[in-house]
Amino acid sequence: MITRISYTRAQSIGTCGRAYRFRYIDRLEPVATSIAMPFGKAVHGPVTDYVIAHALSKPFDIMANFEAAWVKHTSDQQLKYPMNWDADSSYAAAKRLVELFPEAWEKAQLVAVLDQSGAPLVERWLVVPGPPGVEIELRIDFLVMDLRSGAIGVLDAKTTSAEHCEAFGSNALQLTTYQYAVDHAFASCLGPVANVGFMEFVKRKVPKGSKGQGPSIEPPTWYPRRSDEEVREMLTAYANAARDIRDQRFHRPFFASFNSPCNLCDYARLCVHGDQQGYRLRTTSR
Amino acid sequence: MSTVYTEYGAYRPLSDRLPEFLDAYPPSQGYGIEIEVSDLLSIKPGLRSLYEAAIKSGVSIKSAGLPPLPSPSAIIVRAFLTRNGTRLTSAQTYQLVEFEKDLECAETRARQRLVAALGFDGSILDRDELVALPATTPVQHSAPAAADPSVPTADAVAEKSLEHSEPASPALPVPVAVSASATDLTPALRSQVAMKIQMLRAAGIDPVEPTTKREALELLRQPVPVKEPS
To answer: A55 — contact with chain B (CB < 8 Å)?
Structure first.
């Protein structure tokens, strides 16, 4: 029997087995969605389409694309906003990030790598063999070439409220997974990936006056190619996650008060109080 | 002697020059090369003092009229010729450490500049001065117009590719047949160049097929004219 597991699922069960069970086994989802997800999608969509058009030298109206994406992802659902944020400020911040992107991409001196059929390797869905009995599925944001060095790297775009720290980037299994999968799928024609990294879209409110930083797109942060040992360790992590899923080990995690994932968890009320109000059965597959 | 032909001309790698260097400056007589890595402010002590003063007095760097702090990725690597622990002479190089091997590349570059400055091939210090004079330079390929510190050297896996970033020595013999540069086209570059050529041809442009990495990157940067909808 083969267990197919995505990075998101592996991360979910690694964070908390109960949250994994609520989401993927019981198929429950909160009725009110955090704005973070639609915000990310409304920014990510136009950005990825822009990168595709850029790689193919095609004209592209990123702002028109954004307006359509914002409507698509924020309509017809109940949204939750973080403190001090609302629909207008979220829209303004997302719009600003998308406006900033073409210049940020130009400055980054990157171009999406084309596959053998001439299609940009953007938002590419891959399924690759993992450790014995496991398949890993993932979607890479961008496989890019640096136009100054010719090196290729896997770049993950993140909308975030705080920039990541170097230790996270160096250890992130997500990037290791991407490197492994891209090597598996494309090394025969492109050679191995040289670098892995993040490009962060930092969510800040658009300042009302001339002061204040506002939303920003940080230049890509690159990390050297992961070592073979790091890749082996990543595969072990997937093997363990798959085993937990197969054996239905959906337990609470070890954590301390200061780093509890519970305060950010969509399922906290259900988990702690057994209160099913505010949740519904998910109908779409995930 | 093995000469590497780069997009900047002929170049004799450091590893080739080291035996002669070690004969002249043998470790058995107390000679050695010491490497020192420091941040960018170490070569700007005045600016560093101003930053320190601003921070100590609680004034922001911007409001003090100072330039933004240099990138934390920027390093200076110095190579010192030492004898019995005493530093005799030095060479240095600048590098942004952003990609794999950037630090190692900078280390080799600092070393090779020191070795060259001591007379073991590569009058690179003179060539640095010649960069702005392409018409008179004896090298066939133009050197970079100016050193761009932001240029990463991600795929500089080996010393040779690192060394390509140094202008070539005009003292080296002129290569008889310059065809070795095709080897610096990685599989990724070759595949992307093939795609770009297809796109350019579809737009009615017939590009020259690149034979060096530099030419390949130039081709990839070339815009493809957008066809007007008919």
So the answer is: no
Of the candidates A57, A145, A195, the beta carbon closest to that of B99 is on: A195
CB atoms within 10 A of CB A94: 28
| Mean pLDDT within A257-277 | 85
Q: Record the tokens describing residue A74, joined without a space.
A: 């924020």
Residue of A222, A226, A227 to mutate when probing chain B, most B C-beta within 10 A: A222
**Residue B113 predicted with pLDDT over 50:** yes
A118 contacts B152? CB cut-off 8 A:
no
Distances (CA, A) of B71 to A49, A199, B118: 31, 17, 31
Give me chain B's average pLDDT, please: 72
Q: Which residue of A has its CA nearest to B152?
A: A149
Q: pLDDT at position B101, please?
A: 73
Interchain contact A166–B (C-beta under 8 A): no
- In this predicted model, what pLDDT tens digit does every residue of B188-225 receive, in sequence order? 999 999 999 999 999 999 999 998 898 999 999 998 88
To test the contact with chain A by mutation, choose from B60, B73, B99 the residue with the greatest count of A C-beta atoms within 10 A, namely: B99
Residue whose structure tokens are 């496991």: A134
Instruction: For chain B, list the strands marked E by DSSP.
Output: 4-6, 9-11, 31-39, 74-83, 86-96
Q: What is the pTM of this model?
A: 0.65
The answer to whether residue A28 scores a pLDDT higher than 80 is: yes
Report chain A residues whose CB lies below 8 A from the CB of B224: 57
ipTM: 0.86
Interchain proximity B156–A149, CB inside 8 Å? yes
Q: H or E element: which one contains B30?
A: none
Residue with tokens 């005045």: B46
C-alpha dihedral sign at A48, A51, A55, A61? positive
A58 vs B contacts (CB less than 8 Å): 226
A67 vs A251: CA distance, rounded Å = 42
Q: Chain B neighbours among A 120-159 (CB < 8 Å)? A: 145-153
HSE-up (13 A, CA, CB side) for residue A196: 23
Which residues, in sequence order, are CB contacts of A37 under 8 Å at separation 6+? none
Q: How far apart are CA A246 and CA B47, in angstroms?
A: 60
| % pLDDT > 90, chain A | 77
Nearest partner of B138 among B106, B164, B116, B167, judged by Cα: B167
Q: Which of A282, A278, A274 is nearest to A18 (CA)?
A: A274
* Spatial CB neighbours of A31, under 8 Å, sequence gap ≥ 6: A78, A278, A279, A280
